[in-house]
Fold each of these.
Amino acid sequence: MKARLTANKSYPIGEVSPKLYGSFIEHLGRAVYGGIYEPGHPTADESGFRGDVLELVRKLNVPIVRYPGGNFVSGYNWEDGTGDKSTRPRRAELAWSSIETNQVGIDEFQKWASLAGAEVMLAVNLGTGTIEDAKNIVEYCNFPGGTKYSDKRRSNGFAEPFKVKTWCLGNEMDGEWQIGRKTAAEYGRIACEAAKVMKLVDPDIELVACGSSHSKMPTFGEWEAEVLMHCWDQVDYLSLHSYYGNRDGDTASFLACSLDMDRFIKSVEAICDYVKALKRSEKTMYLSFDEWNVWFHSNEKDSGLEKWQEAPPMLEDVYTFEDALVVGCLLITLINNSDRVKIACLAQLVNVIAPIMTENGGAAWAQTIFWPFMHASCYGRGTALRCVVDCDGYRSPAYGDVPYIEAAAVQNGSELTVFAVNRSLEEDITLDLDLSGFGNPELIEHIKLNNEDLKAVNTAAQPDAVMPSGGPAAGLSAKLEKHSWNVLRLKIG
Ligand code: AHR
């Protein structure tokens, strides 16, 4: 089969925000304890942070990490995780029915994030929390000193403010599972008032209001509009969350789920612009897709887990090669919407629905989905270009007409990178690149991720079962093998 991709230098989509390649660590399962933090592990440093995990996180080049939840944040008292570790309370953590030891809190996480080369995106508790708590945590993190909470931070060993720039106003506040769930009117009001006091403490911060927990929520659409009517002037982003799975074994449809993500983004954009019109506003509301991934493998096992354990092995999806293709398609979709989506967080980073897995006391390794994420994060920064792909496709019962090729192009100085997934399960496709306005474009490298077995996984025993391959390339045409993820790197001009 043959296909053609046309991209023109004069037709940009927009600048790709580096924060498009963010991730997420929640106090959930073994993300923190046994994930990023395990004192006594052979690779742990004096703070208890695992060196092997840090090394993998650094490879992903993650610019921002959302913390500490997720559902966890809606019952969290952030002060429990500060000060002398020996006196920190053990809590019955209600979001995940686990025991929280509070050995890691904001201070430790801030330290870990700087070691990882990432900034922290903090969520405040608007479930059981008040606007007073939201104000205090900003004062603790960002106020230089001379006040109750900033001096607490200083006495805890952090003379310099953390300067946390991006804050989430709660998490999934429309969900009936959420501690302190609210109606859109209740949430819109508290989000507005919390935002006001937080920005009074530090006017330089930017805030993310909660959109719907996902696009199938019964109030999806109305929730976004009503919340934004309340807090339009105070917030900078609206959140989107989405998880996908191949529950009925229909791989062709599963590979098409990025079409759903695209529709979801376009719908939320339209709602934001509707409120903009009602408000006669000049402001553009940006989108924060701060939870996205594949999540379904662990659902059954988790339903049988014993409650009230410390760091139970929850949400430990072992990702297959086909999941990596889906993550590739979702990344391409985020890049192609990078004019509006300015933050995105792969949920999550370690052990919990994550690209990085660990054994307690043992190895750390890259799951299959690690690879497309790493490629996009490393090569997908710059200006996203509008791509027109002329190719055949197929019908999916769930998503309608699906093109075989999903692609995005990003220009960075004298480099242009094309990301492409061939969704065909039967045929290789020769992709011709038609690149106008780029001087003399020339392929220099073709990296691919492919495997005969769509269900292949990486494990501690076989961490390299699914690994990228490839090498130098030339010309303006590349063979995209059936069911493969491809990174085409070109020199231009
Ligand atoms: O990422 C796992 C959970 O998914 C988060 O805690 C929650 O926000 C979402 O429902």
Amino acid sequence: MAKINKLLIANRGEIALRIIRSAREMGISTVAVYSEADRNALHVRAADEAVCIGPAASSASYLKGEVIIEEAKKLGVEAIHPGYGFLSENADFARQVTESGLIFVGPSPEAIEVMGSKLAAKAAVSKYDIPLVPGTDKAIEDPAEAKKIAAETGYPILIKASAGGGGKGMRIVQAEEELEEQMQRAVSEAVSAFGDGAVFIEKFITSPRHIEIQVLGDTQGNIVHLFERECSIQRRHQKVIEEAPSYILTPEVRQAMGEAAVGVAKACNYYGAGTVEFIVDDELNFYFLEMNTRLQVEHPVTELITGVDLVKEQLMIAMGNPLSFKQEDLSINGHSLEVRVYAEDPTNNFLPDIGKLQTYQRPQGPGVRVDDGFEQGMDIPIHYDPMIAKLIVHGKDRREAIDRMIRAIEEYRITGIETTLSFCKFVLKHDAFVSGKFNTKFVDQHFKPEYLDEPPSEDVLELAAALAARAWRKKNEMAGGKAPDQATTGRASAWKLRGR
Ligand code: ADP
Ligand code: ADP
Ligand code: MG
């Protein structure tokens, strides 16, 4: 068994901090890497040691695999955790880490490679009786053949880049006359974005839900699943709100999806933490979409309903330990929700809004977890992902989790930049969300920026209340009356200002 005494985290922000915390609880010392823009970042302060790996641009720092491996060796590190994004799904990096005599905290390079190509992934799982979205199982080049397949599949169809990711490289085709042109576009986009022009056809499921299954496997070949995450609230095919468990799954479908996910993992001899994504239609038919071979952004909701620390499990597996639990030891406890807090303006087409966090006060109290990488007074750098925090809650049931999340959002104080918190609150209060009757089109169907007529911030309310109190006093002094207690005036005015 290879003991890890010292771990390098090849990432930044909230996920680097998240990993440092679990490592510390396990007595593992940590090395942070940082770019010049992140010199004062929290992950740098939290780690036992930190090393600068280059200028701000990711391509010159967080994506510099060789530099990171070199530093790891210099500092006597035994293992590298890649987090998510950056080098986490780069099979060459995983291979180089291993070849340098270090442990890569993640699956084998072969598993990353197979699952990194949507077509190779479909081919690998086809032996395992996993339902696939109807369509082609190989790259398609000839438009005449594409038309034939599309006609059999039935329109609308989706043309997808095999190497696609991050919600990019997809084109919907509504009818045959559009097919040839859309196919040409898809190929040229795939070449320029991913350096690989292979595209294939999938039936476009019109009102689908995105439901994924968390899996964990050890190097002895044991694989379990940790139930599902419902990720249907998306913008531009990117997740914004996630929850576990899903409102719509029956125990039977949950079990069938869990077994299918374990089958997908077996198909590539998977070990480590991974996520198998499915698309689910109105009748609860589910189809394999792809597998993400890393820790996922939304992993905390699974941690809160299962009580399993996924990062610790990743590290235990990387050290060669067998899983300490079996499938039947796992169960779902309560309900968890996560909202991604982005530095984006929801009233202005979600444009990134970077700047200084003038006020930054996290919500607290029962069942609230905040995974973030910032503090009051810090600047949000322009170079990276605009996600500033993940706000996660746990409740005894879905109703309590929703109420708790709304309470936590109201408690969160952020000024200096615009965030997506008001948008998240809108979703959580919407009937479609509350009743569970929603799909990946929620935002298109139900959201308009003008629905966010947020009440003025507390600072504005306090100022307005003080002014109102002064005016009241003046008026009463003139009339010979007594000034009221300021707190009462403040509160009454505040409620009035909110129009309630
Ligand atoms: P997930 O599938 O874990 O929910 P997303 O779909 O939101 O992640 O993210 C799309 C891609 O962008 C993923 O490959 C993810 O690893 C990457 N990514 C997301 N957030 C960050 C970040 N803060 N830094 C770097 N890469 C990121
Ligand atoms: P990526 O690699 O970009 O994450 P995915 O295949 O996981 O690509 O798809 C991302 C999202 O696109 C899904 O969550 C879903 O909202 C939508 N999507 C993908 N495939 C289909 C499909 N066949 N029909 C309808 N929507 C789809
Ligand atoms: Mg995906």
